[in-house]
Amino acid sequence: MTKIKIYPIDTNISGGDKWIGTDADTSSRTKNFTVSALADYFNNASQINLSNSLKFKYDTVAVGDSRAGGSFSFASEIGPTVNFSDISNLLFHQNTSNGKYVVELMDAFSGNIVMISKVDDPNKFAFYRINSYSQNPLETEFYDTSLSYIDGNGSINEDKYYFVSLLQFDALSDSDKHYAHTQGVASTTWSVNHGLGKFPSVTVVVSTGQKGYGDVNYIDENNLTISFKGAESGKAYMN
């Protein structure tokens, strides 16, 4: 038999490359294994430690269905494919897709910038600031998460896996939190979920570019309403 050490070293690794090994699922029979299959195993089983990256599956939830463990989803179903730029709120399960309880870590992400990226295609990604993270009162294993989209590329797809990774931790975030609310549809009352954990000052700029004047009602430290005499659209800035 030829000695293994005399074979040349392959310096150009590709997904179709193979090696021989023992298959534990078939009574230790000898089989070929591919590089791409091993990569899929590592990705799907979260076997590689990616520091602060947490893996969740995008779950679509029909009316009456239960939300899957280790998933994120919308409170009200939107569809199997949703652009990253259209996401402002998600429900995250208390566990990652491989069963790790991460509530304390996710809570620490609040007020900071994270990246959500597709596990098998890192070119599908988005940056968000997490505005708030709080337990859902009805589905207590899930946490309502308010997000502000910053930039990105692509969309999320049904039953695909995504990493949530901390990109920037702002140690001064408690003293310098801010939030911008966009009101695209003219209304006499704007409802704002700013998630700042305080009673912020509010500046309104209406669609004409002029400063707007409305009555601000603080519901709690994370929510407020702005009421106008007539229907207005524009933006509200909270500091």
Architecture overview:
The protein is mainly beta and 239 residues long. It folds into two domains: 115 residues, Elongation Factor Tu (Ef-tu), domain 3, CATH 2.40.30; 62 residues, no CATH class. Helix content is 8%, strand content 49%. It contains two helices and 16 strands. A seven-stranded mixed beta barrel has the order 3-4-6-9-8-7-11. Strands 12, 13, 14, 15 and 16 form a five-stranded antiparallel β-sheet that branches. Strand 15 and strand 16 form a beta hairpin. The N and C termini lie far apart (74 Å).
**Radius of gyration from CA coordinates:** 23 Å
| CATH overall fold name of the largest domain | Elongation Factor Tu (Ef-tu), domain 3
Structural class: mainly beta
> Helix proportion of residues, in percent?
under 10%
Encode the helix/strand succession as letters: EEHEEEEHEEEEEEEEEE
Query: How many separate structural domains?
Result: 2
Mean pLDDT: 84
Query: Which percent range describes the beta-strand content?
Result: over 45%
CATH class category label of the largest domain: Mainly Beta
Q: Give the total of beta strands.
A: 16
Described by strand count, sense and barrel closure, the largest sheet is: 7 strands, mixed, barrel
- Label the CATH architecture of the largest domain: Beta Barrel
Terminal residue distance: 74 Å
Shape, per Cα inertia axes: elongated
Number of DSSP helical runs: 2
Low-confidence spans: pLDDT under 50, at least 5 residues? 46-51
Physical arrangement of strands within the biggest beta sheet = 3-4-6-9-8-7-11
